[in-house]
Amino acid sequence: MVEDSFRVDLRLFSELGERLISRDEIAIVELVKNAYDADAKIVEVVINEGRSIEVRDDGTGMNREEIEMGWLTLGTGIKRKNKWTHSGRRVLGEKGLGRLAVLRLGEKVTIFTKKKESPCYRLIMDWSKAKKNLIDVYTPVDKMKVVTDEIKENETTLLTPTQGTTINIENLLSEWNGKKVEKLRHFLGRLVEPEISSSPSFTIYLVIDGKRNEILPPETITKNYNYYLKAEVDDKGNYKGDLQINIESERTQEEFQGKIIPWVLENGEEKYWKDVKDGGIGPFRFSLRVWDLDVLEKGLKRDLKDWTGISLVRNSFRVVQPDIDWIGLNLRRVQNPTMRLSTNQVIGSVFILSDTNPHIVDKTDREGVVENDAVLILKESVNQLMNILEQKRRKIRKGKTLTKGAIFHYLDTTPVKQIAQTLPPIQKKGLEEIISNIDAFKDLLEEWILGRDRMATMGMLGGRLIHEARNALMKINDNYPLLEKYIDDLDSPAKEHVIRMVEGGRVLSKIFNELDPFLKFSRIRKEKVYPRRVVESLEFLFGPEIRKQRIKIVNNISSNINFKAGSTDIYVVLANILDNSVYWLAKESKRETKVIEFRGTEIDNKLILEIADSGPGINPDIKDIIFEAGFTTKLNGTGLGLAIVKDIIDFYGGKIVAFDDKALGGAVLHIELPYEKG
Question: Binning pLDDT at 50, 70 and 90, where does residue 196 land?
Answer without folding.
Answer: low
